Amino acid sequence: MNLLARIFHGRTAGTLQTQPQPDRAQVRNEAGGYVYALDRWARVDRFLILGSEGGTYYATETQLTKENAVNLVDAIREDGQRVVARVIALSESARAPKVQPAIFALAACAGFGDEETRRYALGEGLRRVCRTGSHLLTFCSYIEQFRGWGRGLRKGLRGWYEGKPVRDLAYQALKYQNREGFTHRDVFRLAHPLATDTERAALYAWIVKGDVPGDEHESLALLRAHAIAKASEDADVATCAELVRASGLPREALPSAWLKEPRVWEALLPTLPMTALIRNLATLTRVGLLTPKGEATARVLARITDRTALRKARIHPIALLAALTTYKAGRGARGSATWTPVPAVVDALDAAFGLAFENVEPTGARTLIGLDVSGSMSSGTIAGIPGITPRVGAAAMALTHVRTESDVQVMAFADRFVPFAIGKTESLDSVVKRTDALPFMGTDCSLPMLYALEKRLPVDLFVVYTDSETWAGTMHADEALRLYRERMGIAAKLVVVGMTSNGFTIADPNDGGMLDVVGFDAAAPALIADFTRGA
Ligand code: CA
């Protein structure tokens, strides 16, 4: 079956992957192979970054969520404050594609933690992780699974509202009126925030009763503009656009008919948050604002390729990958909306994808990237993002590596070698398309090392993107690495990039030359580079 393994098996004892290695503590993965159990804290990271939405090839979403919740609660019981600190750190540095897992974990800390942990979660945690009105409502929808509406929770939520400046809070409450069945009015009924001045009292009256604040409250002009917009639904386009321009109303606060008008979108552009801009590129093209030679197009493209702006807006690379695949398709996943993609927009998203990762200095290490493109890697999605399977995500990340490093090769494998090179000049779109078209097969994660050995390739660093559901080889991946080191006389390292939030890894936890990182962690390329340099 496995030619490479047979060649190198010979006198060097290897262990069938369906058997544990005799001298190592291994566990059986879902595919029937033996690998290592991922450390509890590393699995917390996988959950915070990848979530469990969509499940995996082997586990339904419910199973995967349950497993991760059990692991999370174990971690909270071991050291709850460490969990809260981790959630805050990952959330603030925008390393995860989505905020929901962090908010879920924060709610779990507020429910299962000891007193100190709960106070930390409901104070600093709530303030730093739930930065928007949307985050807060999502938190409220999760918290009921973990605890009742006791004093500590009410106090924490009151603190969230009372700690926000009036102008910011008005914007948040207007922009995000409703999430997961929760409204700010619902939260007010439970938590009873107190207003200490008339400005704030007027805002709270708008939230609870819908009372439009009077002219005397300068910081609440946005709410008055909202009332005017609602009353002028049928106004002519120029009037609508002028109101949008003058007021800075967010698009969520506009009558939906206005959002078909290019002039309204043009008026929205200066204040449109980066996330919304990236999500609405198709709409902007459809309404005719983005055209190959348009003036607005140049401004939009400059903005989405501004590294500082991307990082400041906490844009995750996968949001750009998702935007690129959707935009390039020229039609929405649902409904009949179509548009003609502007090539410069596709190119800008491709560039922005690379820019959104934490900045990495090339290490110069001789690197071989092994992409697991087996059947299981084509099932499920990264962080629940449609169309981005683990293997598509892995190939996209490999491309950033290829573009950064000088001495890097990509190979793909399933239960045999799969020809799949990626060059520095290949586009992200092309890599994604080629990955999607690969056949489905079994899995042998020892192949990257055996491939390098067979070709006598000098490699300092192996980076293997996988779900660690390996079973087909006649030698374990870590055995293959040790064999490679011995035969080539190179102290090669191995980084395992986990592409699903399962609890398995092929990295031997007792070998300092092997490391686990989480797939689609925006910091993954930087973590890999640090490990390569020996930091
Ligand atoms: Ca597999």
Provide structural commentary:
It contains 24 helices and 11 strands. With 535 residues, it is of the alpha/beta class. It has 3 domains: 3-40 and 362-533, Rossmann fold (3-Layer(aba) Sandwich); 42-266, no CATH class; 273-315 and 317-355. A hairpin with a 3-residue loop joins strand 6 and strand 7 (417-418). The mean pLDDT is 94. The structure holds calcium ion. Residues 374-377, 443, 469 line the site of calcium ion (CA).
Task: Give a quick rundown of the structure.
The protein has 24 helices and eleven strands.
Helices, strands, pairings?
Layout: H1 3-9, E1 27-28, E2 34-37, H2 40-50, H3 61-92, H4 100-112, H5 115-129, H6 133-143, H7 151-163, H8 166-175, E3 178-179, E4 182-183, H9 184-191, H10 198-209, H11 221-231, H12 237-247, H13 262-268, H14 274-279, H15 281-286, H16 295-304, H17 307-312, H18 317-329, H19 343-355, E5 367-372, H20 390-404, E6 408-413, E7 417-418, H21 428-436, H22 447-454, E8 461-466, H23 477-488, E9 493-498, E10 504-505, E11 514-518, H24 524-533
Parallel strand pairs: 5-6, 5-8, 8-9, 9-11
Antiparallel strand pairs: 1-2, 2-10, 3-4, 6-7
Helix pairs in contact: 1-22, 2-3, 2-4, 3-4, 3-5, 4-5, 4-6, 5-7, 7-9, 8-10, 12-13, 16-19, 18-19, 20-21, 22-23
The structure holds calcium ion.
Residues 374-377, 443, 469 line the site of calcium ion.
